[in-house]
Amino acid sequence: MIDLIDIEKVYQTGKKSSFIALRGINLKVDKGEIFGVIGRSGAGKSTLLRSVNLLERPTGGTVIVGGDKLMALGEKQLQEKRKRIGMIFQHFNLLTTVTVRDNIAFPLRIAKISTNQMKARVDELLELVGLTEYQHHYPKQLSGGQKQRVGIARALANDPEVLLCDEATSALDPQTTEGILTLLREINRKMGITILLITHEMGVIRSVCDRVAVMDHGQIVESGTVLDVFLHPKNKITREFVSEVSDTFGSEAVGAYQVKGQMVRIHFRGDQTYEPVLYETVRRTNATFAILQGTVSKMKDVPYGQLIVELRGSDAEVNRIVEELGEQGLEVSRL
Ligand SMILES: Nc1ncnc2c1ncn2[C@@H]1O[C@H](COP(=O)(O)OP(=O)(O)OP(=O)(O)O)[C@@H](O)[C@H]1O
């Protein structure tokens, strides 16, 4: 759905000076997925996101959205195309002098759709974002979360195929953030809209994204499914992001307990998280086990769990258990 090929962006900062904000960016976002780009301030996330609808025109490379090469389009065609690419912003960017209803109707007025159709569409959008009873309020009478709901409704007005989210929850408290993220998940699921979001919060990535790319100094340094990047972060900056939200624990978490057997960390994912895989595997040997630590969380809708377990048995039995758990798709590391 979105294909960024060899994207470069050089800002002219003076007559003879320039700054390379994006270099060699290659990114593919599939139809219907929620893709997150994470990076520290200045990494180039906003520049990247704004390249997708050419709010920021790349100085090199190709931008393809829904099969169209955007940089090859004329002004008029680009305007039409942009109607199919909704965008929401950190600071909402609402019109302050008109009501919630008129903010949402704004893109429909520009698209010159009939009054009846506009009324019906706005009613539908108000209901979708849960703001029907606030439709005659002005933005200053709304909370941050409500303002972002208006921003989302406005972005969806023209029925876009893609929604770009520029730090959409960064100005919101954690509870309000969760409400907005839930709404984005719902919109993605019900309407099949492809979502590309940028954030500096790994919690946002974990909560809604299918895949993630990590940016640093204008480049993508790592990408993959959220689960893989969480469980096996390769780059230093990725490890820092993961550690900010991760409940991964190491052997030190066990404290002063004197381990007698082999301590292992086991990762479960998906339905296995709730199955007695460990018990069944150990039961086939003469070994036993003790659970020293455990947790179950969710990545988007996928449950994943981890246990730190002490396996007590002969070396051969322990080896067999580790091997068999691996064969059943669990990740086991000896600590
Ligand atoms: N118009 C501009 N002219 C010159 N440099 C710019 C311009 N816009 C952005 N930059 C620089 O490009 C780099 C990337 O900026 P960008 O806003 O894309 O990063 P970001 O990851 O979104 O960071 P933040 O979260 O702080 O917005 C920064 O170093 C920034 O100073």
Automatic annotation (TrEMBL):
The keyword Metal-binding does not apply. Pfam families: ABC_tran, NIL. Residues 2-242 form the ABC transporter domain. It comes from the Bacteria. GO terms for cellular component: plasma membrane. GO terms for molecular function: ATP binding; ATP hydrolysis activity. InterPro entries: AAA+_ATPase, ABC_transporter-like_ATP-bd, ABC_transporter-like_CS, ACT-like_dom_sf, MetN_ABC, MetN_ABC_transporter-like, NIL_domain, P-loop_NTPase. The keyword Nucleus does not apply. Keywords: Amino-acid transport, ATP-binding, Cell membrane, Membrane, Nucleotide-binding, Translocase, Transport. GO terms for biological process: amino acid transport. Belongs to the ABC transporter superfamily. This is ATP-binding cassette domain-containing protein. It comes from Paenibacillus paeoniae.
